[in-house]
Amino acid sequence: MTAPLSRRSLLLQAAGLGVSVSFLGGSAFAAADGPMARRKLVVVICRGGMDGLTVSPPIGDPDYAALRGAVAVAPDQALKLDGTFGLHPALESVHALALKGQARIAPAIASPDRARSHFEAQDVLETGAAQVYGVNTGWLNRTLEAMGPSKVEGLSVGATAPLILRGKVQAASWSPGKGVDETARLPTLLQDLYKADPLMGPAFARGLETEAMAQAAMTALNPAPVPLSTDTAAMAPRTMNASETTPRVPAPPAMTQDAQAIASQRQGREAARKLGSTLAGFMVQPGGPRIAAISLDGWDTHAGQVGQLNTRLSYLDAVLDGLNTGLGGEWSNTVVVAATEFGRTARVNGTGGTDHGTGSTALVLGGGLKTGGIVGDWPTLKPAALFENRDVRPSLDLRGLFKGVLADHMGVDRGALETKVFPDSADAKPVTGLV
Amino acid sequence: MSLPSNDMMAAIAATRFGLGSRPDEIDAARDDPRGFLAAQVRPEGADQPQGGEGSAQRLAEVSDYQMQKRDAKAMGDPKAPPVKDAQKDLRQQAGDDFLARARLGATTDAAFRERWALFWANHFTVSATSLAVGSVAGPFEQEAIRPHVFGRFEDLLVASSTHPAMLLYLDQAQSVGPDSRAAQYQRKTGKKAAGLNENLAREILELHTVGVDAGYRQADVTEFARAMTGFSVGRPKDPNPHRFLFRDNAHEPGARTVMGRRYPQEGQDQALAVMRDLAASPHTARHVATKLAVHFVSDTPPPALVDRLRKTYLDSDGRLDEMARALVAAPEAWDPVPVKFKTPYEFAISTWRAVDAQPSGIDKLAPVLTGLGQKPFSPPSPKGWAEEAQVWCAPDALIKRLRFSEGFAAVVADRLDPNLLARTTLGARLTPPVATAVARAETRREAMALLLMSPEFQRR
Question: B174, A172: Cβ pair inside 8 Å?
Fold first, then answer.
């Protein structure tokens, strides 16, 4: 791999790492006036149950080392935050921001779901409902609805649409590759055929629109673009002859994740950083999206937790670093929240990992954060303090954190927050004073 | 509920129940569409893709590779050519497995049987999260799924839960009872004792059998996980290398209580007894009936259809051949309005079927599927691939389907009559707007791309 990687391959690699980006928000907001008009929000969903006790190890908690055994972060390895907490050593960019007052942790936070099922808990996290199956649209989508009548640009990088973005406001999606010429005959003819299809019609229209926007963002990022074209014919079968002997060809890359370890981790980190800065490139465009969601997979660490989290956290750190540097001056108008569907057991399990738990850590970052300690209270890891004698007891509801950010930072109307964006969330008080 | 015409039912049989019509398929189904499908149900299970080694052989190769790698590392040359080659071979084999399965899908005359097998493979998902699991994802389907898809659900559940691929994928192979002889020995000798891992036990309850709303609690998950301790995979020096091995000394001693029932059995009989009860549970009947109706008919299936399938499950003691026949017999399954949106795999396979061809190489197939969000053998979680149209019909995905269709048409359209293709592919489901658009297209390529991208072809 000596040839320089094109942006396309970097982004595709990032997709192979289990990272995808989605974003919403656009020209409607750009037209708005006032200090809120430039405010931006990025939500990072860490899927699989991210272990808060590794993200922000409470090295000063007297019970931490014994509960965690071999998967504990050593006190001299942690990047110190205060007398109790540190950050995992892979989170160096986050730590640098924390030292400037631009990153804080909420170390005992959870959604209202207690079932310890990935799928239920992710649904609750993304729908913003009080319980599973309460709502079938995403709260970021309803935020846009609440923010006003709009022709909202929507985009998701990655081939599938995450629940957090699904809903009435059509969220588009984009991933790097050759664009389709909007003026060509075929798209026009197809739009005609899709008129009666409630799903395909709007989705296709949004796909064509965002393709143009994506091209603009890519050009803005790099004035001398690497050619993005792929030969469409190369995607189709070279021959249709059934009796043809199959040539021995390389299997798809990343079909397995065998550890070619360190080199690939370094490459992965670069790709993740590039993904963050590409997203930033979209967001700083005039009329660009102001709300985005990133999915980061691979946090379900039932076994071999130390190595897996080392890699995943380094990617998370790189995405956040790419966002921060890519946003430049706009960083002061941006809040980023990284959260997961649930934390993991306080005790190490029998296989060098941890099982599904409850409270975890959320990261809150942004150039405009007010300084302060941890967000929410720390219940400690004393035996009596553990939730159901196994998990970190949540002291804060994720919906309260999101509500506080939407109200104070994005200027979303409080009435709409309580009724539309996070229905039935009266018991999750907004966390105020973060910005 | 009245049924549509035989012409329409033949088109539905080939597209909704099958994998898209091959040139003569709708004709073949026309006389008796339901009989055409029911005849594909057979006791010996699904068809097997060509070639491929068994999982034990594959895991032996993975094990050899890992040893070679360790040796090479010790010699200071971790990237020695033999090591690289061994790894490449393993990935190549996984690619070959996937290609063989796709070719079976593209060419089979019994596409309902194949779709039925794919449904169960997705119900019992394994995903290539490691080289080992990726290497046995194909063999897993061949050994644990395909032989049992028209047998009893319980047998399928046991086959899946005792297959090395599943035991490795969901960490069961390493789970050790905290009070087992193995753990006690480790403690006595001052070694760090291995312990419980509840991953597979939880997913069997939540995803494979009773479903998340069945009322079980954390304590039930933990108890079932204790019952399952010992379910493992033989290491190279074990008596049963690279195959299912019950490690009695890792099994947690004592009776267990799962969902209110006590299990006094010893050894592997204990977890098997839990599985037998799970398979017989009315919750499982509802869960499986709902998933089948969602997969074949609609993301929001008619309750009458779910109820019919649920009753069949309970009346037949979970016989999957009876379930298949009940699905085909159900009038609710034949609604002429196609509401399911093809997954990328279904879409790709149906394009090859439409022109009586098959993918020539994994390098043609894998990038397309990966780009559309369905990387070979790599579902995103134990829940498997999504069913909802909204997930797959994302704006970017539609643009990519268009690019694929254009590319595909560029290769094959010039030797085909697009109007005939529209009729053989969609039969009575071909609507006037699509027929007109195809007929008026400027070129054969444009006509074919329009056909492949039409809502009638994208949906089923």
Answer: no
